[in-house]
Every structure is written in structure tokens, then in C-alpha cells.
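fold-stage: in
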Amino acid sequence: MTLSRRPGLLPALAAALAMAATACGTQEPRRPATAATTATPSPTPTACRPTAPSKTPKGGLPDPQDIDRRDATAVARAAVTVMWTVDSAIDRGQRDAYLRACPYLTADYAARVAAEQAVGPLPQQWRDHRAYAEVSLELRQPEGDLDPDTPTMAYRQWQVTVTPTGRDEWKGRTVRAIAFVTLTRPSPDAPWQVSRVTTA
């Protein structure tokens, strides 16, 4: 399966599923070369919290209070899990899932997510079955000539597997993508926050 490429902040899962039912829209999987290209995180990003859906998707989400914020891998895993956990019973599209991820994002990234336009509604097939995304992640080793982690910047790559699952036991075709996560923090003692996610 060839993955399509789309600009913007959000991986266009819903739009791609509507067109092909098997693919995931993406953005370019590029990482910044230096910390200067990434916004400094704020300890309390609130830009998109007021507009995030208040209900929890079926299957639940990581509890932000249970995540070790000084563990870049744990923060990246939690953020990506939330971003991809879409539920047609409560969400208009994947943007709603991104809004729920705001507790893990820098203030700048949260603001950009809040400003991003929705890429399209979830497929009608999801609506018909009241489907939600069953999400699993596998940590991948970075490939190529990529920047190493520093005390204030880290990078993680995840194999994301999403299976649309209906409340009536319907199963859609599985979608797979690679999520590239950039994390930053203002000092080595500060909590990690996600400043960028791209997919392929």
C-alpha cells in the first residue's frame, strides 16, 4: 500500500479512509535540524483545550497524570496514542483527537492545532457502525542521518496501527503509518512536550 502525502498539521486519516478505506493521509516526515527551528515549550499549553471534545473515546485514553513527563518516550507514546484515537460517536474528525492531545503539546503547537481546519468528516461507514479507532504503537529505531537527542530536544518514531472497530463488532481494514515526533523542553529538569508530529 502506498501512502499518500498531504500538507498540514493533521494526518488525514478520515479523508483517506473515505477515499480508499485502507490508507492514511500524511505530511512530510521531516525533523528539524536544530532546536532553533522548534518553539520553546510552555509548561501549561491551553490554546486548544477549550474546544476539545469533553467525552472520552471508547477504549479510553492515557491519563496525563500517569505519564512520566521526564521520559520523552512516554510522552511521545501518549501524545500519538491520543492523536490517533478517533471515535465516530463523539468526533467530527481526527482534528478532535488532536485537540484532546493538548496536555502533551507545546503552547505553540497546541495553537497551530487549534487553528488548523478540519480535513473532512469521518467516513459514513464509520458512522454507520459507530466505529472507533483501536490504536497500537511500536517504537521504531530512527533511520538515516538524523539528529541525536539532546538534554532539551528528543525524537521518536512510532509504527502506528489503526483498526476501525464498530460497536456492532464490525471491523474495517487496518491502517498503518509512521509517526515522527519531536519533543522539546526549556531545560533538562523540565517536562517534555511534543512540538511537532509528522507522518508517512
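fold-stage: in (second)
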Amino acid sequence: MSGGAQLSVTDLRRSNRHPVDLAMIGEHRRYGDVLLNVINISTTGYMVRGEPVLGRGERVTIRLPQIGRIEAFVVWIDGDRTGFQFERIIRLDDFARMIKDLQPNPRLRLLH
């Protein structure tokens, strides 16, 4: 059996990112609950800031408004920033509803 993540979503780092400031608790199979400071999110993944506790290829499950539980894989680490890729792409309409829940200020929401 090969190690590391077997990502099913194509690497789409050019996806539009939405800036957020979310303290989330992720579930990791070995570490249990891990605190994640999410600083941006897109339909394909998210970025966290803080001392990395996970290595490349490790998986964590988070719970997002409108989306529910979704697993993501660490795809890169750069200093105190870590990039995660979702196991699947979030539909744009679900993503827009999630951003509306996360960002009550209408000036900062996605433009359609």
C-alpha cells in the first residue's frame, strides 16, 4: 500500500479564494481534535495559519456551514501556512450559501 494522500480532486490552486478568519476544530485519526485557524477558503480547499501539526498527505475532517463534514488533505506547507485540498469540489451554489453564513457583511461576500 502506498503512503500519502490519494487526491481525487485535480490541483486547482487558481480557484478564487475567499478571505476568512475562522477558528475550526478538525478531526485527525491520530491526533484527535486539532485547532485550525482558517484564513482563506475556496471550492477546492483552504489555507490555515499557525504552527503546522500535520504533514503533507495527512487528512483532516472539518465541518462547514451548508456543506457539513468534508475531508481535506495537506498538499503544501510553507512556514506557518498550510494548504489543504478538499476530497471533492464544493458546488458553487453551496459555497455561496456557506460564505453568506460565514460573512454577514454583504460588501465582503462573493459577487455573482
